[in-house]
Write a structure and sequence with these properties.
- The complex is a heterodimer of chains A (about 260) and B (about 325).
- Chain A is built from nine helices and seven strands.
- By secondary structure, chain A is an alpha/beta fold.
- In chain A, strand 4 and strand 5 form a beta hairpin.
- By secondary structure, chain B is of the alpha/beta class.
- Chain B folds into two domains: about 140 residues, 3-Layer(aba) Sandwich (Rossmann fold), CATH 3.40.50; about 170 residues, Thiamin diphosphate (ThDP)-binding fold, Pyr/PP domains (Rossmann fold), CATH 3.40.50.
- In chain B, strands 3-2-4-5-7-6-12 form a seven-stranded mixed beta sheet, sandwiched between helices. A five-stranded mixed beta sheet of chain B has the order 9-11-10-13-14, with helices on both faces. A two-stranded antiparallel ribbon of chain B has the order 1-8.
- The chains are: A alpha/beta (about 260), B alpha/beta (about 325).
- At the A-B interface, helix 4 and helix 5 of A face helix 4 and helix 5 of B.
């Protein structure tokens, strides 16, 4: 699929994210918008194979996962507007087995990565040749369990595990380096035994490069530091920590969607 | 339940076995029969007696280091991928330290993880308060979807582990390190969730679990047919039918556990009886306090959790 096609899909995903969040009245906006390009590439850019698994560790990114899964045909798009509603399979944070394509429950930061490690270990035991992609947040790196998981991933040489850290520099209370600095992130990951790559999370060519490279690095787990802009695509949301944990009102989402549609 | 008593083995030449030795043995036996079983350790391999499993199934054994939160999360990931993980460390660390991980990664996902809480209760005595654990039953049973067991001896531990492996879903089993009296035999039946009337009586019902079952039987030994002793090896799901039937008969209940009187077996029994058949329930256990260093028998004696202490309590209750 060409870059133009992927951009179109990413735009639709962003529109769906905004729509479902304003309908729900709560949820996380900035992260999901920033991650839309990556998720488009992962599911539509020939990266993720059917046997691969995507483990969302940063559970609050649910809107981008739901929108991408719907776009990819895992379930009907009509379900998106039921986000967070009573009885909906689209729970506020993903629930294991609620929908096809949801591999785990999440929401408590730092836990998905451990599960991803376990899944990768199971695949090694069963000699299954598939990749576990674990998507995490940068604020999430504050949790000690994350580093326990990294140590174990290196110990067990989990080259069937690719961790993607959404480096958007915000978390709910503000900028990551003000809340609890995590730099030097690349250095830490390297010292913890990962093969580390970085890329611009809005450049499809760069992202595709690192994701393909991740498939051919052996004997160690892979980490991709994905540099994204929180709220990407909506001018009044970009780089605003306030939009981390806030959902747009109907008017705000309509304004945002108009803006997205006006861009080519 | 009547034929249970015939199988009881209570004499001076009584066999001594530690629950952890039994666990280590049965895990290897079960591992031979089911290749999906994997074992995770948190740097307490020998203390939890899982070295035997490691030796025979090195591919299925994972040393996770002193990182209990990751250990249980990894176990969940293994379970979601079809394995049957047995994650063993001290109860104070699991469910103590990693309770929230058990909550989300295991209980909420109904992941097929078996959590073994070693050194529960007074543990090995000498280590002291921090590694003794009197809150694990409370922590485990308050989580939805978790089966909670406290076998009464080494023999029963083997059956509990086998039942846990067969059961599909999260299980927590508390385990003790010390060599203690074996009061059941290989013939003693075991059904997950079914309480066992070890001794029949009509004046007082003692409901106990773990090592306190033997102590209760010893305490009731020379009191004729007055004391009924029930072994509640499965605290959740609780066999309320058996408990209520007994309480109806005797009208008086005493619970005994090597655990806090808050939230454990006593708490569960009170919850059940209050709703169905309110009777007076006296709870014996740790009275909202921590433990301390000492020899196991000394500690049990000091905190009233031995045959002598239970006997005194029985007499107190019966004299009212």
């Amino acid at each position: 699929m060409g870059e133009g096609e992927l951009r179109k899909i990413a735009k639709e995903i962003r529109i769906d994210i905004l729509g479902m969040l304003s309908e729900a009245g709560s949820g996380h906006t900035a992260g999901p918008l920033g991650a839309a390009d990556f998720f488009s590439l992962l599911y539509f850019g020939g990266i993720k194979k059917d046997t691969d698994k995507v483990v969302l560790s940063a559970g609050h990114y649910a809107p981008v996962l739901y929108a991408t899964l719907a776009a990819a045909g895992f379930f009907e798009k009509e379900k998106l507007k039921t986000l967070r509603k009573l009885g909906s399979p689209l729970q506020g944070h993903p629930v294991y087995q609620s929908l096809p394509g949801i591999e785990n429950s999440s929401g408590s930061l730092g836990q998905g990565i451990s599960m991803a490690v376990g899944m990768a270990m199971a695949n090694k035991l069963d000699e299954k040749k598939s990749m576990i992609y674990c998507f995490m947040g940068d604020g999430e790196q504050n949790e000690g369990q994350v580093w326990e998981a990294y140590m174990s991933a290196a110990k067990f040489k989990l080259d069937n595990l690719t961790v993607i850290i959404d480096r958007n520099h915000i978390q709910i209370d503000g900028h990551t380096e003000e809340i609890m600095p995590i730099e030097p992130l690349r250095g830490k990951l390297l010292e913890f035994g990962f093969y580390v790559m970085e890329c611009d999370g809005h450049n499809f060519i760069e992202m595709k490069d690192v994701l393909e490279k991740a498939k051919v690095i052996f004997e160690k787990p892979k980490a991709i530091i994905l540099h994204t802009m929180p709220g990407k695509g909506v001018s009044f949301m970009e780089n605003e920590p306030n939009w981390h944990g806030k959902a747009p009102s109907l008017m705000e989402s309509q304004r945002a969607i108009i803006e997205l549609n006006s861009k080519s | 339940m009547e034929n249970l008593n015939k199988e009881l083995f209570l004499s001076d030449g009584i066999e001594m076995m530690s629950m952890r030795d039994a666990f280590g043995e049965v895990l290897v036996e079960l591992g031979r029969r089911n290749k999906q079983i994997v074992c995770l350790s948190a740097n307490l391999m020998d203390s939890l007696r899982v070295s035997g499993f490691k030796e025979e199934f090195p591919e299925s054994f994972f040393e996770m280091g002193i990182a209990e939160q990751n250990m249980v999360g990894v176990a969940a990931g293994l379970a979601l991928s079809g394995k049957i993980p047995v994650a063993a460390t001290f109860a104070c660390f699991s469910p103590g330290r990693n309770w929230e991980q058990i909550r989300l990664s295991v209980a909420f996902q109904k992941a097929n993880v078996k959590i073994i809480g070693g050194h529960a209760g007074f543990g090995n005595g000498g280590d002291g308060a921090n590694q003794q654990m009197f809150e694990d039953i409370a922590l485990a049973r308050v989580l939805p979807n978790v089966v909670v067991m406290a076998p009464c001896d080494g023999n029963q531990m083997k059956k509990a582990i086998a039942a846990a492996i067969e059961y599909v879903g999260p299980v927590y089993i508390r385990m003790m390190p010390t060599k203690k009296e074996v009061l059941t035999s290989n013939m003693t039946p075991f059904v997950l969730g079914k309480a066992q009337v070890m001794k029949e009586g009509d004046k007082l019902t003692i409901i106990a679990c773990g090592q306190m079952v033997f102590e209760s039987l010893k305490a009731a030994d020379n009191l004729g047919d007055q004391i009924e002793v029930i072994n509640v090896h499965t605290i959740k799901p609780l066999d309320t039918e058996t408990i209520i039937r007994s309480a109806k008969k005797t009208g008086k209940v005493l619970t005994v556990e090597e655990h806090s009187v808050i939230g454990g077996l006593g708490g569960a029994v009170c919850e059940a009886l209050a709703e169905e058949l309110p009777v007076k329930v006296i709870r014996m256990g740790m009275r909202d306090c921590f433990g301390e260093s000492g020899e196991i028998n000394e500690l049990m004696n000091k905190y009233g959790l031995d045959a002598g202490g239970i006997n005194r309590k029985i007499k107190e209750i019966l004299s009212c």
